[in-house]
């Protein structure tokens, strides 16, 4: 269940008091906008709700840093924006530093203070969202604009 999922790291860290565990479950579900979902099963949740449960679990131990791995992947634009707003809320209200790994540039531009772009394991750009948006690096421009270059399209010509 949702509650058991959030309780897992708490129990793993040795928290024994069921009252403390239930309190944290209720608190964290409220933070992510899923109050009252403790008994729901994963199959009963939408994709966005599952991502919010994962966030509740991630913040159950009050971490200083949360790693978000493709947090908006598979979500429609509205649900993706809900996740972006939640990331911002955690940053502001809980003072959680987020490291977001994403291909979703709209999300990156919304939630990031700093962006680092990699290509073939090497940093090709680093800066504020505005600095990245105004980059004259061709690879950065192609990625931001979602444009394939001639090299990317070579395989299509073989079909």
SSE order and pairing:
Elements (H helix, E strand, L loop, with lengths): L1 H11 L5 H14 L15 H12 L6 E5 L7 H17 L3 E5 L3 H7 L3 E5 L2 E6 L1 H5 L4 H8 L4 H8 L2
Parallel strand pairs: 1-2
Antiparallel strand pairs: 3-4
Q: Please report which band the strand proportion falls in: under 5%, 5-15%, 15-25%, 25-35%, 35-45% or over 45%.
A: 5-15%
* Structural class label: alpha+beta
- Backbone shape: elongated
Mean pLDDT, as a whole number?
93
N/C terminus separation? 47 Å
Order of helices and strands: HHHEHEHEEHHH
Q: List low-pLDDT spans.
A: none
What multimeric state do the chains show? single chain
User: Order of strands in the sheet with the most strands?
Assistant: 1-2
State the helicity in percent bands.
Answer: 40-55%
Task: Report on the biggest sheet.
Answer: 2 strands, parallel
The rounded Rg comes to 19 Å
Number of helices: 8
Number of DSSP strands? 4
């Amino acid at each position: 269940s949702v509650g058991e999922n959030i309780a897992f790291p708490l129990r793993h860290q040795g928290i024994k008091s069921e009252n403390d565990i239930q309190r944290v479950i209720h608190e964290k579900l409220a933070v992510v906008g899923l109050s009252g979902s403790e008994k729901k099963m994963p199959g009963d949740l939408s994709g966005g709700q599952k991502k919010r449960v994962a966030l509740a679990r991630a913040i159950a131990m009050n971490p200083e840093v949360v790693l978000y791995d493709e947090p908006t992947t598979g979500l429609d634009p509205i649900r993706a924006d809900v996740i972006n707003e939640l990331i911002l809320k955690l940053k502001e209200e809980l003072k959680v530093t987020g490291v977001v790994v994403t291909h979703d540039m709209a999300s990156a531009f919304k939630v990031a203070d700093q962006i680092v772009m990699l290509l073939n394991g090497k940093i090709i750009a680093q800066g504020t969202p505005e600095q990245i948006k105004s980059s004259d690096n061709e690879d950065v421009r192609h990625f931001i604009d979602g444009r394939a270059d001639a090299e990317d399209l070579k395989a299509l010509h073989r079909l």
